[in-house]
Amino acid sequence: MNQAPSMLKPALISGVAFGIAGSIPVINWINCACCALIIGCGFLAAFLYSKDCRAAGFAFRPGNGATVGLVSGLIYGVIAGILGGLISAAVGMGDWEEVIEQIEMSGADIDPAVLEQVSQFMESSGGFMMILIGLFFALLFGAIFATIGGLIGGSVFKVEPQAPVQEQAPPPPPVG
pTM for the complete prediction? Predict the structure, then answer.
């Protein structure tokens, strides 16, 4: 019996493409619309995998879409988390002094010693901590929302395998 097609290629294509898009400033704002980039990542992976299943004659159901969506979402999370953190560190986003000033100006009742400790910690860890935090959230949201996108794609691109066609004997000749 033939083997089911690999999910890795569709997941890699979708995860890398959307991970790069999700790490680019301004383009990543699309995720503000209900994590649309991440859902699209899982949806594209499901579409690509359904084409492979159709060509190989295998069933493709919503569960398969969710699985390939999850894998593509994890790939998305790694790419977007690391690349986004590096871009933020290179461009200079995440100035902690401004964040601390805004917290103080907001009137929040936070102990100044705590703010000082947070400020010192973020200055000492630098961009590395931002990359780790970004990676964690990109993996978390990637796994959740790309699985949802894959589930939707699995429902839309559902493929049932074709039953083998059995040849029927020709009808008997007319009695005449």
Answer: 0.78
Query: What's the Cα-to-Cα distance from 25 to each of 20, 31, 33, 160, 165, rounded to whole Å?
Result: 10, 11, 15, 41, 53
| Burial class of residue 70 in the structure, from the number of CB atoms within 10 Å of its CB (0-12 exposed, 13-18 middle, 19+ buried) | buried
65 close to 154: Cβ distance less than 8 angstroms: yes
| DSSP symbols for 140-160 | HHHHHHHHHHHHHHHHHT-B-
E strands, 13-152, are none
DSSP letter assigned to residue 175: P
Could you read off the pLDDT of 130-170 as tens digits, one per residue?
A: 778 889 999 999 999 999 999 999 999 998 877 666 777 77
